[in-house]
Design a protein that fits this description.
single chain; 151 residues; alpha+beta; two-stranded antiparallel sheet; flat
């Protein structure tokens, strides 16, 4: 009888853990690296220290009786964030490979620190805005690192 009770208890805990959902928190680290010639751009790594609820800034449109959000756009701004300086890809001499690997070392340090704090790298998204024609000398690389950890 004790064995059956023990087996039933183990099965119940097994089913409970099989259906239990892990709840995660997420953190995004954004890296913006300038590809503006002559070293005129700015490169940074950014991490928000404040949160926002997207629902506070969302409107629902249905065609009849639209529910519009009355919040001020200035309320969206986050003033509490970490800003880490990075080096630009270019200087007066052209592309600087030392700057690229220096940025890699700083970003790697951030990733290693977050991993040691229990964060797992979940996603990496990147994009580029580069040369758009004869008179366009602007450009950036943007990379977003999305981390998650169990709450």
């Amino acid at each position: 009888m004790k064995q059956k009770l023990l087996l039933l208890t183990l099965l119940l805990f097994g089913f409970q853990s099989a259906f239990a959902q892990d709840i995660y928190e997420y953190q995004i680290v954004t890296v913006i690296e300038s590809i503006v010639p002559n070293g005129l751009g700015r490169s940074r790594m950014l991490t928000a220290n404040e949160t926002r609820d997207y629902k506070d800034f969302t409107s629902t449109r249905t065609g009849e009786g639209d529910k519009r959000n009355k919040s001020d756009r200035s309320e969206i701004r986050v003033k509490g964030f970490d800003e880490t300086k990075l080096l630009n890809f270019y200087n007066l001499g052209g592309i600087r490979f030392q700057n690229i690997v220096a940025n890699d070392a700083i970003v790697m340090s951030k990733i290693n620190t977050m991993a040691s704090e229990g964060w797992d790298l979940a996603f990496v998204n990147s994009g580029v805005e580069s040369f758009g024609g004869k008179d366009d000398d602007n450009g950036i690389y943007i990379t977003r690192y999305t981390f998650k950890r169990k709450k």
